[in-house]
Fold this sequence. Notes:
The chain is mostly beta strands. 1% of the residues lie in helices and 47% in strands. The chain has one helix at residues 210-213, and strands at residues 2-5, 27-30, 36-37, 41-45, 62-69, 75-79, 84-89, 100-101, 107-114, 126-130, 134-137, 142-149, 157-168, 173-187, 193-196, 200-202, 224-233, 241-249, 269-277, 280-281, 297-302, 305-322, 329-336. Residues 189-337 form the Fimbrial-type adhesion domain. It is found in: Fimbrium.
Amino acid sequence: MTIRMSAAYGACLAIGAILPMTAVADCYIRDQNNNKQYTAQVAQIPAFSPPSFSPSVPVGTVLIREELPSSGAPFYLYCTGIIGLTTYTKSGAQGPYNTWPTNVAGVGVRMQFTGSGGGLGIWWPWSMVTPTTSSRYSGERKLLVEFVKTGPISAGGSLSGEIGAGWAQDMSFKFMSFQVAGSGITITPRVPTCKVREKMLNVPLGDISANQVLPTVGATSEAKPFKIVLDCGGGEEGSVTKTYMTLTDVSNNANRSSTLSLSPESTAKGLGVQILNGTNLVSYGPDSSVTGNPNQFYTGTTQNGVLEIPLSARYVRTGMVLGGTVTARASFTMSYQ
């Protein structure tokens, strides 16, 4: 068996009824060309890459602080009845220190308006009452964006897409969306990064007499141990990173079972290969390093130094056995979270 490192991560019911018309929004926007729309105007925030930071600072420490301009054309907001309570906020539940969680564990984000206009110096959510049925807005504002440590940090990431929004009529109509452009805002803690020591491993499983050793479908041979070794460094003293792995069936990328397919050059039939993480069978997943990738499994937390990941492999009988050679290939993709 050869293991290589990845290059990288019924029934139909007919109902007859008279349905009510879809409700029309109580507010709408007219852009600078007088076009009417019911979707939020975008105020774009530039992407940026702040310096790396220590993950070992106390909880509550501001890790990144940046004043960013947003850009967007002016527009008018019209509502049936008064615009009422307008709120600037971010979706999701707010956590400690006026922050919202990011996709980097232990890091929260908060923002407030600076420069000129309303809401200066107030961490979002910020609200005000607009007692008129229409009002002019502009996407050109300045925002102070801060990233705050809210818990243990073991990996980096980025913040992209919508970072906040403006809502009218007591959160019923989103009229402005503040979005980070391009690659987003990078979050880079000084935690260990790892390299695989050997990018290709050959794991010999040996010769067997299948009908004697594997008398029935599902029977397995003795597992042969092997290990994947990572060299990790670059982190601050005491910092850690969590490592995860996904194994992918090279011969059948869609395989999500725990049996590795035989490679096309194999001449034996009725056999497969299983890989174990301790006593747990490993199932195969897509070649991806994204967090939560299907069948991704935890392989340990490491500081600077060497991390050894012990695994083992064995034959499994899958059907009527025909003697011959067996080759199976899996790639592995590491994820640091």
